[in-house]
Amino acid sequence: MLRSSDVRAMTTPDGHTLGSLLRRYGAGEPLTCEPVAEGLLNRGYRLATTHGRYFLKHHLDGDQAAIARQHRATLRLGALGLPVAPPLADADGRTVTVLGGRCYALHPWVDGRHRDGAALTRLQSCRLGALLGRVHTALEQVITRDPEGTSGPEGTRGPDHEGTPDPKGTRAPYEHTGADPVRTFEMIDELLALARRSRPRSSFDELAEHRLLERRTLLEREAHRRPAAAQVPATGWVHGDFHPLNLLYRGAEPAAIVDWDRLGVQPRAEEAVRAAAIFFVQPAGTLDLPKVRAYAAAYRRASGAGAAELAAAVHRVWWERLNDFWMLDWRYRLGDRRADPQFPASAALAVWWTREYAAVRAAFTE
Length: 366
Description:
By secondary structure, the protein is an alpha+beta fold. It has twelve helices and nine strands. 45% of the residues lie in helices and 14% in strands. The strands form three sheets. Strands 1-2-3-5-4 form a five-stranded antiparallel sheet, with helices on one face. β7 (247-250) and β8 (253-257) form a beta hairpin.
């Protein structure tokens, strides 16, 4: 299994590798290469050459067929007018380059910045929902007509929690029933033991212990609301990781949706709900419901999803949040603290969402 520490140990491509790669693209000679993104599925670099600026992506999982499918999808989405940054093709027309056993792709550099929900107006929140709805309908169009792609859930990646580690770049098919609370109780006990043994003890450890005990009490009370298989919303092709760090804005408008590594078949409305729970979460662990309402209404119009589909998605993502502890897993099992700043708001959101369940559901469905 690839640990996060292994990823951090990987070095920037050397001059020989960069030179060999750029010659295939006719992209000049390398001048600078700076890391700009680090993850368990890929690494990214800002690359300056004698011909211009590029984004160089190193795909760590090395699944060339999956990468090629992502590339075909983004190329076709771009042709439909969606804001994407498709890969460049080399002299032989290929978009995946293998050097030293590693898979690379070269993309045009996109100037832009990330914007979370706090930086969006209600109108921009509406446009965000419409954009995701367009992505879902366009993916269905470009992938199901792709003779080299797949048109069903076999061989596709399942759902993801917001940034959950996927070391090998492969995911099991989505669960038809919600997470088993019995397994969650076991996980809570394991994480509690790790948090209590942490030395030197910190305020984070105190908060982690408090939230784990709180969540156990909540789950004991709410266990009867576990989603059943019949509650799965309609499935379709989705981006798989739609959140503020994967959307670049230029001014007030989206410039590029990036990082398509988790492209796969999932319940579409669940991606819409997960994205809203990341974009519109506030520091106190509440959702900006007026913006959520604008976003969700636009998503429903653009995607054709009905209120019942969104209601089922809200319930399943709420349950997912109640049973999910990936941030604590990163810290206490992987020794990776990158997600620590997100934990206070995320942990509080699960509690607030349970209390305000009806209001959250209404914001997505009415």
